[in-house]
Automatic annotation (TrEMBL):
It is a multi-pass membrane protein. The lineage of its organism: Bacteria, Bacillati, Bacillota, Erysipelotrichia, Erysipelotrichales. GO terms for cellular component: membrane. It comes from the Bacteria. This is CDP-diacylglycerol--glycerol-3-phosphate 3-phosphatidyltransferase. It is found in: Membrane. Belongs to the CDP-alcohol phosphatidyltransferase class-I family. It comes from Erysipelothrix larvae. It is an enzyme of class 2 (transferase).
Length: 197
């Protein structure tokens, strides 16, 4: 197994650690959840820890892609696992945010539904030897999701100090980009299916 694939597996291993930090019953073990107070915003230590892990995971995503391309480490295993690792990381955090009622359920459902449809299309097209390339809206969606996750973990700082709900705006923007990219992929796939019938 090459280094790029090991980094992808490492990223997947970080996901249950992130979940554990969130769901661990601190009170039952007599542990007080620490926080830093910034004006009226409470920035919990566990959120800071998860933000660090998320940053590490995001960096490994960049690094394994760079290594795979620059050192010719592209493998079928990597092509299969890398997008799964990305979606597991992002969707896990979004679901956790929903459970804490910091992110709207509808927005997260739309993003997960979109991913499911696009993955199914990619699988069907791959059986015909067709690669469904990442589109503009999909790339913007990914960046918006990452920025939204960072802002939610930071309690919308520094924007919260000025009463600007940027984290909520980014969540809904990512949802809109998910919808647009999903529609774009469906239309693109429809034309590909029709030309290959």
């Amino acid at each position: 197994m090459n280094l790029a694939n090991r980094l992808t597996i490492f990223r997947i291993i970080l996901i249950p650690i992130i979940v554990l930090i969130y769901v661990f019953p601190y009170a039952q073990f007599g542990i007080t959840e620490g926080y830093v107070k910034v004006d009226t915003v409470l920035l919990y230590h566990k959120n800071i820890a998860i933000l660090i892990l998320f940053a590490i995971a995001s960096f490994t995503d960049f690094l394994d892609g760079y290594l795979a391309r620059s050192r010719n480490m592209i493998t079928t295993f990597g092509k299969f696992l890398d997008p799964i690792a990305d979606k597991m990381l992002v969707n896990t955090l979004l679901i956790i945010f929903v459970s804490q009622q910091t992110v709207p359920l509808v927005a997260v459902l739309i993003m997960i539904w979109r991913d499911t449809v696009v993955d199914a299309l990619r699988m069907l097209l791959s059986q015909r030897g067709i690669v469904l390339a990442a589109g503009y809206f999909g790339k913007v969606k990914t960046v918006a999701q990452m920025l939204a996750i960072i802002l939610v973990l930071l309690g919308n700082l520094p924007f919260e100090l000025y009463g600007i709900p940027v984290s909520s705006i980014m969540i809904w923007f990512a949802t809109l980009m998910s919808l647009l990219s999903g529609v774009s992929y469906v239309l693109q796939s429809r034309s590909l299916f029709m030309t290959n019938e």
